[in-house]
């Protein structure tokens, strides 16, 4: 191609020279300048033709390159579509499997409602009530929340029947209460609560049904259902890309339910990313009374990556080494206990022994700004209570 270009260029120069030199000889009467002008025009025409040819060739080369690039882009797009389709198929399969596992769990829980369970032996008298309101005076209902609707007078048999019916009809509602960082008051966690909704829409509060359900052997079923719902809530926040964790109560009855725990761990094996966002909460009494089986299950959950919280603390004499050994990373202390002058020395000792351990204190049942000011002066990390928001219904995941 280069030789042809040189040859054509040489021919154009030769033709131009022939016209420039030969025209005066062939036409003596003509102006000699015309020969040079004609030769120049021929040379210019040759140059223009050569330039046009070069531009045409460059355009063809450019079009070929563009065509090649387009084919490459099309091929990459096709490969990307195949990979996306493959990934979506895999995600869909995983999600489908997770839903099947949840349905299996829920089916197991509901099936247990028909089982006859002997009443549990009455517990010996306790020096302090196990209720979450051990240090909190009764408060008026929050009229802004539907959860505050008080149930009409019901005897224990009616309450038990309402609980069984609510479990069978999936009317155990989930409510969330924020746990905030101090002093910023930024939502860091939500605690998950259960509420029993009767067939007529009346909400039966925990202080009315918990003891009755426990005597009837239904608390494990309620707690287990709560755990499944909690996993669904965490998955929903993952889809919305919300960085927040959930505290979920776990009773000794749930820990000792080997069949449920096995299925629950199978479910979590398909949702490993959700594990760090779930904190199991046990009472101080249950942790102290836990036998080898309970502590063994806690250790197994800790190896998977779970963290724990201890609440309903009635005795500030806390074994910090035991907390660390069982991955208990949060301790909840009642606001009234923290602000009791008689407890100042013991609470200060607890805070001193927890420093540098990675265990955070949560002050719960904070209801007034005055209480909050006193809590802030004590250097507590997190707060919970009606001052920051009461339990509110959680939107059911799709």
Automatic annotation (TrEMBL):
<feature type="transmembrane region" description="Helical">
    <location>
        <begin position="32"/>
        <end position="51"/>
    </location>
</feature>
<keyword id="KW-0472">Membrane</keyword>
<protein>
    <submittedName>
        <fullName>EAL domain-containing protein</fullName>
    </submittedName>
</protein>
<keyword id="KW-0812">Transmembrane</keyword>
<dbReference type="InterPro" id="IPR035919">
    <property type="entry name" value="EAL_sf"/>
</dbReference>
<feature type="domain" description="EAL">
    <location>
        <begin position="156"/>
        <end position="398"/>
    </location>
</feature>
<feature type="region of interest" description="Disordered">
    <location>
        <begin position="115"/>
        <end position="151"/>
    </location>
</feature>
<dbReference type="InterPro" id="IPR050706">
    <property type="entry name" value="Cyclic-di-GMP_PDE-like"/>
</dbReference>
<dbReference type="InterPro" id="IPR001633">
    <property type="entry name" value="EAL_dom"/>
</dbReference>
<dbReference type="GO" id="GO:0071111">
    <property type="term" value="F:cyclic-guanylate-specific phosphodiesterase activity"/>
</dbReference>
<keyword id="KW-1133">Transmembrane helix</keyword>
<dbReference type="Pfam" id="PF00563">
    <property type="entry name" value="EAL"/>
</dbReference>
């Amino acid at each position: 191609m280069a030789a042809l270009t040189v040859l054509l260029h040489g021919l154009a120069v030769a033709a131009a020279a022939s016209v420039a030199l030969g025209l005066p000889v062939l036409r003596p009467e003509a102006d000699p300048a015309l020969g040079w002008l004609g030769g120049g025009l021929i040379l210019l025409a040759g140059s223009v033709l050569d330039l046009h040819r070069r531009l045409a060739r460059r355009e063809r080369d450019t079009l070929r390159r563009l065509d090649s690039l387009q084919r490459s882009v099309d091929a990459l797009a096709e490969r990307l579509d195949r990979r996306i389709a493959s990934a979506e198929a895999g995600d869909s399969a995983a999600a489908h499997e997770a839903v099947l596992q949840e349905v299996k769990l829920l089916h197991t829980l509901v099936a247990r409602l028909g089982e006859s369970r002997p009443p549990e032996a009455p517990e010996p008298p306790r020096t302090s009530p196990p209720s979450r309101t051990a240090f909190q005076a009764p408060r008026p209902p929050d009229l802004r929340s539907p959860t505050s609707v008080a149930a009409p007078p019901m005897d224990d048999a009616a309450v038990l029947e309402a609980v069984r019916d609510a479990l069978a009809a999936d009317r155990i509602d989930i409510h969330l209460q924020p746990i905030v960082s101090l002093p910023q008051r930024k939502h860091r966690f939500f605690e998950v609560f259960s509420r029993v909704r009767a067939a007529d829409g009346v909400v039966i509060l925990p202080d009315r049904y918990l003891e009755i359900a426990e005597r009837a052997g239904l608390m494990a079923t309620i707690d287990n259902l709560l755990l499944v719902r909690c996993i669904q809530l965490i998955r929903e926040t993952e889809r919305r890309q919300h960085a927040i964790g959930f505290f979920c109560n776990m009773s000794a009855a749930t820990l000792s339910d080997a069949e449920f725990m096995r299925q629950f761990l199978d479910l979590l094996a398909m949702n490993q990313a959700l594990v760090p966002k779930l904190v199991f909460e046990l009472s101080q009494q249950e942790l102290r009374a836990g036998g080898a089986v309970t502590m063994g299950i806690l250790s197994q959950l800790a190896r998977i990556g779970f963290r724990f919280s201890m609440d309903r603390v009635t005795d500030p004499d806390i074994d910090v080494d035991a907390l660390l050994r069982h991955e208990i990373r949060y301790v909840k202390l009642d606001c009234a206990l923290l602000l009791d002058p008689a407890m100042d020395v013991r609470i200060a000792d607890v805070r001193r022994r927890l420093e540098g351990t990675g265990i955070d204190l949560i002050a719960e049942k904070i209801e007034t700004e005055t209480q909050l000011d006193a809590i802030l002066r004590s250097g507590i990390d997190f707060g919970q209570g009606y001052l920051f928001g009461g339990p509110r219904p959680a939107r059911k995941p799709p």
